[in-house]
Amino acid sequence: MTTENNNEHQDTSQVPDSRSGFQAERTRRLSAIDELKTAGVNPYPYRFDRTHTLGELREKFAPLEPGNETEESVSVAGRIMLKRDQGKLIFVTIRDRSADIQLFVSKSVVGDAQFDVINNLDLGDWVGAHGLIMTTRKGELSVKVSSVDLLSKSLRPLPDKFHGLTDIDTRYRQRYADLIVNDEARRVFEVRHATISSFRRTLSEREYIEVETPVLHMEAGGAHARPFITHHNTLDMQLFLRIALELHLKRLIVGGMERVFEIGRVFRNEGVSTRHNPEFTMMESYQAFADHTDVMELTEVLIRNAAR
After folding, report:
1. CA pair distance 91, 273, nearest whole angstrom
2. Do 108 and 88 form a contact (C-beta atoms < 8 A)?
3. I need a labelling partner for 62 at 20 to 30 A (CA). Which of 138, 142, 191, 246 fits?
4. What is the sign of the dihedral through the CA atoms of 180, 185, 191 and 192?
5. CATH class for the region spanning 177-307
6. Hey, what CATH topology would domain 19-158 get?
7. pLDDT tens-digit readout, 28-44
8. Whole-model pTM above 0.85?
């Protein structure tokens, strides 16, 4: 983040390292919520009307030269990732799902009361900011803040901003925490969404019908895997979570559907690793009047379209 001073400044909110420090930090933030409520401030308001995402701002004002102030009024929202205090100025970096941007907070602009409110915000808090678009002398695109609204008070400190989550088990069990600090983790979700959307478009263009088939099966079949077993109380019968999509899709072909596909969850009661999860998403498609060469061609098209 760029500021108007080359000196290093300490963050105004520190992430505690120990469990006791974590509890102390949480207690402090709970007390801050009580103080906000006493002052008549709702720490969890329902909505905020923003004019742009942060990514849209960066795209729109990318050509803006350093040291410029515009008359463009914007309202933006994001999570506080960094906060630096420079006396009568506070530089706050906020992040939404599209980008980061700097909030330029001047005491002379917002006034003493609002300045103190902003100064008391914590890393992890969600805020909405109103102000004018500007660039600093170093060229950092910023919002010159006129007012800030607290949108959601964070009770837990963020993962370390330099090292993120280094423990693999924690990263996978607490994916939401990894998403906060790990750009690559967010990228995985975006790529997955784009890939599945592409599959659906391609199959729809070829007149495949997307269906949903039962998750609870009377028999465990369609693949060689150990199933999860459950019990249906009303029917007093043992059922299995599906280990494949195959069986019911084939029955739809028998029923005359001709071209069907499903993207759904399957469950296999087997080993666990970062590459093998007992619950995962599978896609299967079936087509009448076709052979393996047609399936090969479809597979190539699906992958080629998804990679574009």
Report:
1. 42
2. yes
3. 191
4. negative
5. alpha beta
6. OB fold (Dihydrolipoamide Acetyltransferase, E2P) (2.40.50)
7. 999 999 998 998 889 99
8. no
